[in-house]
Amino acid sequence: MDNPRERFLASLLGGFGTVVGLFIYQGIPDLIRLDFLQIRVGNFFLFLAVTFLLGMAGGYGGHRMFMVTAGTFRKRAIVVGALTGLAIAVLGWTVTFYFRDALFPFRLFEGVESLLFSYLRNALIAGPIGGILVSLSVARWLHKRGISDGT
C-alpha cells in the first residue's frame, strides 16, 4: 500500500483536490457574488500552479502520515485528513497573502486584505473538512478492495 505509485497518486489527488475544492467553495462563488473582480490571467495560472503544488505536497505528506499513524482506516482518515487539509489551507493562504502581487488571481483593489482574511476564515473550515472527506473516501475505497486495516 506504500509504494511510489501510491505516493504519486496521493500527490495528484492532493493537487487536483485542492484546486477543485478551492474553485468550488471560493473561486466560482466569489466571481458570481463580487462583480468587480477581474481575473489577471498570468497571476491566475501562477496561482493555479502554486496551489496545485501545495496540494501535491499535502497529498504526499498525508499519504506518508496515513501510513505511520496507528488506528483503523476511519480514525486515521479523520486525523490525517483534518491535519493535511489544515496544513494545505494555512500554507496556501499564507503564500497567497504574502505574495499577492504575483499570486492573487484577481486585479488588486482597495480592501483586498479584508477579502483575503475572509478567505483565511473559509480555508480554516473548508481545508480540514475537504481533507477529511477525501481521506475517508480513500479509506472506504481501500476497505472495499479488501485491503484490511487490522480490524
Which descriptors would you attach to this protein?
151 residues; mainly alpha; 80% helix
Q: What is the ordering of alpha helices and beta strands?
A: HHHHH
Strand content: under 5%
**Multimeric state of these chains?**
single chain
Helix/strand-derived category reads mainly alpha
Number of helical regions: 5
The largest sheet, given as strand count, sense and whether it forms a barrel, is: none
Mean pLDDT: 92
- Helicity range of the residues? over 70%
By DSSP, the count of extended strands is 0
Q: What Rg do the Cα atoms give?
A: 17 Å
N-to-C span: 17 Å
- The shape is elongated
pLDDT < 50 stretches: none
Please characterize this protein's 3D structure.
The chain is an all-alpha fold. The chain contains five helices and no strands. The protein has helices at 4-33, 41-68, 73-98, 100-103, 112-144. Helix 1 crosses helix 5, helix 2 runs antiparallel to helix 3 and helix 3 (73-98) packs antiparallel against helix 5. It is elongated.
Topology:
Elements: H1 4-33, H2 41-68, H3 73-98, H4 100-103, H5 112-144
Helix pairs in contact: 1-2, 1-5, 2-3, 3-5
Brief sketch in words of this structure:
By secondary structure, this protein is mainly α. It has helices at 4-33, 41-68, 73-98, 100-103, 112-144.
